[in-house]
């Protein structure tokens, strides 16, 4: 693991290393200060300097096709969840909000963003960006009721670099399961910790609607029950938390 004092985005940095053929499989970069962290759908991931895990890992993909990307995403999400759950009192409160956020109860604790290098039909590299709230206690107003950190839950300070190293170990463990193509185990674990499973939620696709969360299928789609069973892919629906 390499420690960067400052960078715009660890994912940008890691992908540059991949593009320059300077990255080795498993190389990781932790930023003390990330100035333009990336979230899903072009959103920014804002992190106070030195307070949180802002880490990217370069992963060489040798024997998986692009159709198996969801299992990789799920495996990396499970790694992030495992780390956070290790340090809170009620580990079963740590859930995975489809597709890639870590929640503690109803509050966001972290997320992952994966960017891929694909050549033709060949998936060559993945850069896995982890953002996990560790010691930050105040968040921007728009996030103030939606974000939580380990310190806010436990009331103690954590060593960010130590936790980042543990996260790398956890990611390696789940990557081995992915490489062994034990996709059933990944999907089963992901569904076991799925946020709001068996509960009614409010979702949006053009208009708002209520549905019960059933689970995630082998295509990585969220299955919900309205008057009938429906499934949605990434980007097709949004969660509504009003």
UniProtKB/TrEMBL annotation:
Keywords: Ligase. PROSITE patterns: BPL_LPL_CATALYTIC. Pfam families: BPL_LplA_LipB (PF03099). It comes from the Bacteria. This is Biotin--[acetyl-CoA-carboxylase] ligase. The keyword Ligase applies. It is an enzyme of class 6 (ligase). Coiled coil: none annotated. PANTHER family: BIOTIN PROTEIN LIGASE (PTHR12835), BIOTIN--PROTEIN LIGASE (PTHR12835:SF5). The keyword Protein biosynthesis does not apply. GO terms for molecular function: biotin--[biotin carboxyl-carrier protein] ligase activity. SUPFAM superfamilies: Class II aaRS and biotin synthetases. Its EC number is 6.3.4.15. InterPro entries: aa-tRNA-synth_II/BPL/LPL (IPR045864), Biotin_CoA_COase_ligase (IPR004408), BPL_LPL_catalytic (IPR004143).
């Amino acid at each position: 693991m390499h420690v960067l004092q400052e960078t715009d985005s660890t994912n940008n940095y890691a992908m540059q290393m991949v593009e320059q053929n300077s990255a080795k499989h498993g190389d990781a970069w932790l930023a003390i200060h990330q100035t333009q962290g990336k979230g899903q759908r072009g959103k920014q991931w804002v992190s106070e300097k030195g307070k949180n895990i802002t880490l990217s890992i370069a992963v060489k993909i040798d024997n998986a096709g692009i159709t198996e990307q969801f299992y990789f995403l799920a495996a990396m999400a499970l790694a992030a969840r495992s780390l956070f759950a290790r340090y809170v009192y009620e580990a079963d409160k740590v859930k995975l909000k489809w597709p890639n956020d870590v929640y503690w109860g109803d509050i966001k604790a972290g997320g992952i963003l994966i960017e891929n290098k694909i050549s033709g039909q060949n998936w060559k590299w993945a850069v896995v960006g982890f953002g996990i709230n560790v010691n930050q206690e105040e968040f921007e107003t728009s996030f103030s009721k939606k974000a939580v950190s380990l310190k806010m839950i436990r009331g103690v300070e954590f060593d960010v670099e130590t936790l980042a190293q543990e996260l790398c170990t956890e990611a390696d463990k789940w990557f081995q399961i992915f490489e062994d193509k034990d996709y059933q185990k990944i999907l089963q674990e992901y569904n076991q910790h799925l946020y709001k499973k068996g509960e009614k939620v409010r979702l949006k696709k053009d208009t708002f609607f209520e549905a019960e969360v059933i689970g995630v299928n082998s295509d990585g789609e969220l299955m919900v029950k309205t008057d009938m069973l429906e499934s949605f892919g990434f980007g097709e629906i949004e969660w509504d938390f009003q």
